[in-house]
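Input structure tokens:
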């Protein structure tokens, strides 16, 4: 499935190291959650369902 991310409101992770090497996230409503590399905003993005994103956050691997 391809998602239209042209109107996505991206924001950087609160755990970004001084604004470099950041991950950006966009909440896409019913489409899920988008994740991209801030150094390449026009590049590819991953899109996860809400359930997948919740499992990721609950896993704690991002800490």
């Amino acid at each position: 499935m391809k998602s239209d991310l042209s109107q996505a409101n991206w924001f950087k992770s609160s755990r970004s190291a001084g604004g470099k090497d950041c991950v950006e996230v966009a909440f896409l409503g019913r489409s899920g959650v988008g994740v991209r590399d801030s150094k390449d905003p026009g590049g590819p993005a991953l899109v996860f369902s809400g359930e997948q994103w919740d499992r990721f956050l609950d896993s704690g691997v991002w800490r």
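The chain is about 15% helix and 25% strand. The beta strands are 11-12, 23-27, 33-37, 45-48.
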